[in-house]
Specification:
Blueprint (H helix, E strand, L loop, with lengths): L10 E4 L2 E4 L5 E3 L5 H10 L3 E9 L2 E7 L6 E6 L12 E5 L2 H10 L8 E3 L7 E3 L10 E6 L5 E6 L13 H21 L5 H13 L4 H14 L6
């Protein structure tokens, strides 16, 4: 059960055959204490999407890492896997050192950066990859149950490993953006509309509400572009 973390799907039709997108949406993480796990992931600054106590023996909690297309769920009555058995769940980051510092600032105990075979502890070498190659530098941390996460620095993706644009979802977001921009445009000095759009879309993609995204876009225009209403 995915709880609204992505845009509408697209169906791509190849020559002579159809292909339906199957995007990984949620990973279930087995935990012992739901409230303890919730406090940990909330403390990391991850977005809380839902906490549904459906029944005494069934509860679903969902978090989404910053700007991630996929989410994690845990709760009561969701899995028979042993708590702590989820290992090396991978988080792709632009800068592994910066990501490590941010997690540490939120109270996580994160390993030093290393390179080598990230999933194999016996083949890890201290320090970042000497050539700073994409996919080659890592750090790791665990939640209170021992489920482990692996940060992987990805600066350039291999060919074909990028998300395709969801045209319908993007069109809907741009329409929404234009509607909210109208209120700003009515009172603002002359400006480049694309600056406001970019800030609004970025905020919405990061999980902000429409109202919060409009506020963020206005703040960006005032502080960065010096357009003050």
């Amino acid at each position: 059960m995915a709880l609204g973390t992505s845009r509408r799907h697209q169906v791509h039709h190849g020559e002579g055959s159809g292909r339906v997108d199957m995007k990984l949406e949620v990973v279930v993480v087995p935990v012992t204490d739901v409230d303890r796990a919730k406090a940990f992931y909330e403390g990391l600054g991850w977005r809380l999407d839902a906490d549904f106590p459906v029944a005494p023996d069934y509860r679903v909690v969902q978090f989404t890492p910053p700007n991630s297309p996929a989410s994690v769920q845990f709760g009561i009555g969701m899995t028979t896997a042993a708590p702590g058995s989820a290992q090396n769940m991978l988080l792709a980051v632009d800068d592994v050192a910066a990501a490590r510092d941010e997690l540490v600032s939120h109270g996580a105990r994160v390993s030093e950066v290393f390179h080598g075979a990230g999933q194999n502890p016996d083949r890890r070498v201290p320090g970042p990859d000497p050539d700073h190659g994409s996919y080659k530098s890592f750090a790791t941390f665990a939640d209170p149950d021992g489920n482990t996460w692996l940060l992987q620095e990805v600066t350039t993706r291999l060919a074909g490993r990028v998300w395709q644009t969801d045209v319908g979802g993007l069109a809907a977001l741009l329409k929404e953006t234009s509607e909210h921009h109208g209120a700003f445009e009515a009172v603002a000095p002359k400006h480049d509309w694309w600056d406001w759009y970019a800030a609004y879309v970025d905020a919405r993609e990061s999980g902000s509400t429409a109202e919060a995204a409009a506020t963020a876009a206005g703040t960006y225009m005032a502080e960065v572009k010096h357009i003050v209403v």
